[in-house]
Amino acid sequence: MNLASIIDPHPADRVAILSRGKKTTYGMLRDQVAGLRGGLVALGLQPGDRVAVVAANNWYFVASYLAVLGAGCVAVPVNPASPLPEITRELGAIGARAVFVGPMARGTLSGLDRRELPALEHVIASQGGEAPDALLVDDLIVAPPADVVDRAPDDLAVLIFTSGTAGAPKAAMLTHGNLLSNLEQCQAHPGRAQVPDDVTFAVLPFFHIFGLNVALGLTMASGSTLLAVERFDPQSALEAVVNHGVTVISGAPTMWSAWASLPDAPADAFAKVRLATSGAARLAPETKRAFADRFSLELSEGYGLTEASPVVSSGHGLDAPTGSIGVPLPGLSVRIVDSDGQDALVGDAGEVWVKGPNVFVGYWNDPDATRAAVTEDGWLRTGDIAVVDDHGFLYLVDRTKDLIIVSGFNVYPAEVEEIIAGHPSVEQVAVVGVPHPHSGEAVKAFVVVAPGAAAEEDEIIGYCEAHLARYKCPQKVMFVDELPQNAAGKVLRKLLR
């Protein structure tokens, strides 16, 4: 088996990808991916080698991703909008031997310092200028084709950075079996299956597990068409939905609320959409009502996390109540566990535990974090708190972790605090999430300035922007004399919030 083989069964003339105004059929895609696979093999890359893909949602990402998997290597999707220090940290953490660089990341990675990445041997660029010694993908793709490397279900396929259940970002290890099983689980859910005639609006970033396996993976597995969207603009995105006859849309609540707020959007804009799902954060009831009233489109909510590859539950096709995240997917078990480790009663809150072939095998080089996240008998402790009603519908009510969700993306305070603490004028720092009308939450930092030093809000924010992806950077910095702490010296983020 190999996850990359999901593109093999489909008719050669069927359109696989619409990207940057160009159509790529499944026949073309198979030939291109086979050439790229051959190029990777010719470079000496071996099964198990980590190969990063730093690209936006376009043909370049899809072809590179499938080629890496097909060669038996481990794909590591990286946010192309991240600043160079963050990309360097991630490449170094997993020992990347090669990296594909898409057009969007070209300028950033031109300053890559190979001395900081001793394992990195090859930079494969979409065009000239990424690095002085970069190989060009156009040269690689014409290599003699190589066969897909057979992999076992428990062989590693993807490393994707997540904050896990606590602490700083770490790389979650997802196997070929994990990812394929979640595709099968989604396809088996009532009314959730994608069909060859579907056109998927894919704006969820492919470096995020939601975009990678739900948008990209399900589309390729079903033989339907992927409309790859690199940037979201409500008006142009709406035009693309209409012009391309989009039938499937998955997105974060911020996308749906942006569309709901468009004053001149025609009532029939989503007339061909048959599957519209929201995830990654809570969907506001008013947004769901607005879509039903304005566009006659029912939005369904689901729930998932990187460590579950990612989908755990879905409300689609079940007439799920507003606010519910639906029911578990077929082939997947969910428990609601109380503070005593027992199954909670119906209506009582407890932590969501998940078990199934889609649950990841752990965090890269972090056995302690893995043991904290997964029980000895294979239950994934999500850290999210939910209740179940008499009809079996799940509702998220809280989370046990300090996670901040900005436009559907996870941000952990520890990571942002570590960066801010590196500023020479900062003595102490604490970061929390605060409500935001557009992104759901925003990052807010509380800073204690070192004695004799001085700092400005814009200075701290700019310092973060040089080291972190923009969505992780604080939008507000408050300067305080001290941080509230308990008797053990732990910062009380609840009081700051």
Description:
The protein has 497 residues and is an alpha/beta fold. It has 3 domains: 3-151, Rossmann fold; 178-399, 3-Layer(aba) Sandwich (Rossmann fold); 404-496, ANL, C-terminal domain (GMP Synthetase, Chain A, domain 3, 2-Layer Sandwich). Helix content is 27%, strand content 26%. The chain is built from 14 helices and 26 strands. The chain has helices spanning 26-42, 59-70, 84-94, 106-109, 137-140, 176-188, 209-222, 234-243, 253-260, 285-295, 367-373, 413-421, 457-465, 493-496, and strands at 15-19, 22-25, 50-54, 74-78, 98-101, 122-125, 135-136, 156-162, 170-175, 199-202, 225-228, 248-251, 275-278, 300-304, 311-314, 327-328, 333-337, 350-355, 362-363, 380-388, 394-399, 404-406, 409-411, 426-436, 440-449, 476-479. The strands form 6 sheets. It has a 9-stranded mixed beta sheet, sandwiched between helices. The protein is globular, with a radius of gyration of 22 Å.
Quick overview:
The chain has 497 residues and is α/β, with parallel strands linked by helices.
Could you give the topology of this structure?
Blueprint: E1 15-19, E2 22-25, H1 26-42, E3 50-54, H2 59-70, E4 74-78, H3 84-94, E5 98-101, H4 106-109, E6 122-125, E7 135-136, H5 137-140, E8 156-162, E9 170-175, H6 176-188, E10 199-202, H7 209-222, E11 225-228, H8 234-243, E12 248-251, H9 253-260, E13 275-278, H10 285-295, E14 300-304, E15 311-314, E16 327-328, E17 333-337, E18 350-355, E19 362-363, H11 367-373, E20 380-388, E21 394-399, E22 404-406, E23 409-411, H12 413-421, E24 426-436, E25 440-449, H13 457-465, E26 476-479, H14 493-496
Parallel strand pairs: 1-11, 3-4, 3-5, 5-6, 6-7, 10-11, 10-12, 12-13, 13-14, 25-26
Antiparallel strand pairs: 1-2, 8-9, 9-19, 14-15, 15-16, 17-18, 18-20, 20-21, 22-23, 24-25
Helix pairs in contact: 1-2, 6-7, 9-10
